[in-house]
């Protein structure tokens, strides 16, 4: 979350107050700014977000309250839909796309030709809409963290967990669909002697879950880490209480912001790339199909 | 920060699935369709251009060949014409020479004839004159054949004929 200067001034003043009179834990106070909340800070004041009733299924309580990150999840979804649909209209109307449409098309081409086809072959093209949505949805959510008053929904581990669960389902579904359930289950034995199955099968099953888990943590940690660096650098200004020293953190913050811009694109790419790779592993390519189940 | 909030996970999944459903039909399908259509078009255009280039190449070859053939033909016609002209010139010159020679010969003959006639006439004139003159001198008619042959002999001696 990039906190704009005016908001930061007040927030950090609070922080400083806590640091002096409270427990002195500056870091814990700063973390508040990257966490989810039940209110939404806008340029026009803070909006209290509604608490919705929760329900319990199989012992898990789902609190469906609209939090700040839910709001940004939806903002990203709406913005992405508006951009993609309007670009789709424009690009289909003319032969040669221009400007922003050209850029979007280049990115789509990149996902298709550099991510999907190398990892999954031509068969993977039917999953292209899913991977395109993953890439652009994560990208837009990441970029919203760089806008003043914005927040990255992907900086919340629950959001990335949701994306990873979808990736998990897609990975299993694509490999079952490509190999059939029998071959899919046979793969879980790792192709070793049956005596080793009691060891192999738990490892393989664990392996199914570690991949999406890594996706979830990687995206969450990268987005949160960048924001914490930004907030910490700005926090330095209030620790030193000096305009002269303030120049250095501001310079750093500008530099880190550019880095964050890069990381926003990079993490969207990595998430999509790895999902595509994991899906591709379960989809026998022509040459691979004859090899059997060991790998 | 790592608190698990199943509600948010569920919201994420719901939102993602809705976004996927919306974009799948309204954005990705037309965009990818347009992309593949354009790729096909470009591939077709390149193929057509290649075909057109090959056709042009073939036409150029054909044209060059025709040009070379035409050049040969022109050369042949030219040399034939030149030979024909040479032959004609020679013939005409020969004919002209022949006819000139003929005319000259005729003219010479004519001249000779005229000269002979003139000589005969001159001789008879001279003989008459000599007879006349001798008759006057001798005051006697010498017009006899014996005398006349005598006179002729005398004239021949004089003229050296």
Please give a structural write-up.
The complex is a heterodimer of chains A (295) and B (161). With 295 residues, chain A is mainly alpha-helical. Chain A has 10 helices and 4 strands; from the N terminus they run ααββββαααααααα. Chain A has helices at residues 5-21, 26-31, 68-93, 99-120, 128-144, 157-179, 181-187, 197-240, 243-281, 286-289, and strands spanning 39-42, 45-48, 54-57, 60-63. A two-stranded antiparallel sheet of chain A has the order 1-2. In chain A, strands 3-4 form a two-stranded antiparallel sheet. In chain A, a hairpin with a 2-residue loop joins strand 3 and strand 4 (60-63). Residues 1-9, 15-23 and 286-295 of chain A have low confidence and may be disordered. With 161 residues, chain B is an all-alpha fold. Chain B has one domain (33-159). In chain B, helix 1 packs across helix 2. Chains A and B meet through strand 4, helix 3, helix 4, helix 5 and helix 6 of A and helix 1 of B.
What percent of residues of chain B adopt helix (DSSP H or I)? over 70%
Total domain units of chain A: 1
Global morphology of chain A: globular
Q: What proportion of the residues of chain A form beta strands (DSSP E)?
A: 5-15%
Quote the beta fraction of chain B: under 5%
Low-confidence stretches of chain B: none
Low-confidence stretches of chain A: 1-9, 15-23, 286-295
Number of domains of chain B: 1
The structural class of chain B is mainly alpha
| Radius of gyration of chain A, in angstroms, nearest whole number | 23 Å
Count the beta strands of chain A.
4
The radius of gyration over CA of chain B amounts to: 61 Å
The helix content of chain A, as a percent range, equals 55-70%
What is the count of β-strands of chain B?
0
């Amino acid at each position: 979350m990039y906190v704009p200067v005016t908001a930061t001034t007040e927030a950090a003043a609070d922080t400083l107050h806590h640091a002096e009179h409270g427990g002195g834990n500056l870091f814990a106070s700063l973390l508040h700014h990257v966490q989810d909340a039940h209110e939404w800070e806008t340029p026009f004041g803070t909006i209290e977000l509604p608490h919705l009733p929760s329900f319990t299924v199989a012992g898990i309580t789902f609190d469906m309250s609209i939090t700040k990150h839910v709001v940004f999840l939806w903002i990203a979804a709406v913005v992405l839909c508006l951009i993609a649909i309007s670009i789709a209209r424009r690009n289909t109307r003319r032969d040669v796309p221009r400007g922003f449409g050209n850029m979007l098309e280049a990115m789509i081409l990149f996902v298709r030709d550099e991510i999907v086809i190398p990892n999954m072959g031509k068969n993977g093209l039917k999953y292209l809409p899913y991977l395109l949505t993953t890439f652009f949805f994560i990208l837009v959510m990441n970029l919203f963290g760089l806008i003043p008053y914005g927040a990255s929904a992907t900086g919340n581990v629950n959001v990335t967990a949701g994306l990873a669960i979808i990736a998990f389902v897609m990975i299993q579904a694509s490999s079952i669909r490509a190999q059939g359930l029998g071959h899919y289950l046979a793969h879980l034995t790792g192709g070793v002697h049956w005596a080793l199955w009691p060891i192999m099968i738990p490892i393989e099953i664990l392996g199914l879950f570690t991949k999406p888990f890594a996706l979830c943590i990687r995206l969450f940690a990268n987005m949160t880490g960048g924001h914490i660096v930004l907030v910490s650098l700005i926090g330095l200004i209030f620790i030193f209480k000096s305009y002269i020293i303030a120049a250095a953190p501001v310079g750093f913050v500008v530099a880190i912001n550019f880095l964050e811009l890069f990381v926003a694109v990079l993490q969207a790419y990595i998430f999509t790339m790895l999902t595509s790779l994991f899906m591709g592993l379960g989809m026998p390519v022509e040459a691979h199909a004859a090899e059997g189940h060991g790998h | 920060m790592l608190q698990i909030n199943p509600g948010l996970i569920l919201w994420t999944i719901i939102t993602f699935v809705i976004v996927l459903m919306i974009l799948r039909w309204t954005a990705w399908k037309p965009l990818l369709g347009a992309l593949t259509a354009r790729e096909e078009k470009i591939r077709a255009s390149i193929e057509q251009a290649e075909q057109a280039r090959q056709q042009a190449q073939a036409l150029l070859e054909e044209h060059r060949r025709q040009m070379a053939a035409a050049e040969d033909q022109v050369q042949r016609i030219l040399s034939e014409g030149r030979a024909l002209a040479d032959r004609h010139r020679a013939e005409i010159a020969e004919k002209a020479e022949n006819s000139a020679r003929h005319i000259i010969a005729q003219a010479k003959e004519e001249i000779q004839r005229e000269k002979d006639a003139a000589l005969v006439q001159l001789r008879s004139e001279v003989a008459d004159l000599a007879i006349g003159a001798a008759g006057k001198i001798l005051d006697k008619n010498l017009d006899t054949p014996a005398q006349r042959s005598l006179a002729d002999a005398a004239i021949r001696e004089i003229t050296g004929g």
